[in-house]
């Protein structure tokens, strides 16, 4: 028997319960993992609280991320004792996830632990960090250089945003961080590398089709009016990497930024990102992220605190990354 957070549904309401499950109850997969750490992402918050229909079947162990040690494997790519990382692939939604002491996964979903990483650091990065790295890489691949001008990061206080700010600043970009909690998080965001902090209210409004050109690049985690306004302010031949919908899935914009300024809109998905691209992103982010990030923007909690933090994250009350120690 192993300790786990288990979600059930009663009268269309999600109930989260700390319990024990049998290893025999774990879903099918080639690799059994002794889980050391998981983390809380926005999607985990939605799953645990039931605020959105993220979970496709019950009962469900949440946790879209985890890192740990292989106990046994029927796939030749992994042997007992190997350290591995799991992010995405619908885990914690349709397949039992990382908020349990043991988990079983398909081998194709795993990434070998990089040599300069461990379980704690991997989950301090997690899906949020992987997504942020893919966003930054999209800007780089799109020709956005530090000399091109400022890069805007929306939802900068969150997991993806805080990592994106750190990565961009470390690569030499001028970063403007947008947050709904400027007074609370301005000092942290500047410590991570933001040159200035913009209150979200300046973007969360109805925008004109085109406004003054401000941003050479954009990493957006919010969507809706915030994204619509940011797009209207993009510079000529700029790139917007979008990866989230914390503010809603609508996109109130026009074709004007795209056909008159050549703005490119690049969607970023980390859930089904192919292995080679995923592995390259892990290696690159570990090269760039300074040790100061892990001290400034990461917190650790126990499995018993997950429900509390799940409620906090969907209310926008969590700053940076939250590690769950198993």
TrEMBL record:
The Enoyl reductase (ER) domain, residue ranges: 13-324
Pfam family, one: ADH_zinc_N
Stored Gene3D superfamilies: Medium-chain alcohol dehydrogenases, catalytic domain (3.90.180.10), NAD(P)-binding Rossmann-like Domain (3.40.50.720)
SMART domains: PKS_ER
Superkingdom to which the source organism belongs: Bacteria
Protein name listed in UniProt: Oxidoreductase
Native organism taxonomy: Bacteria, Pseudomonadati, Pseudomonadota, Gammaproteobacteria, Alteromonadales
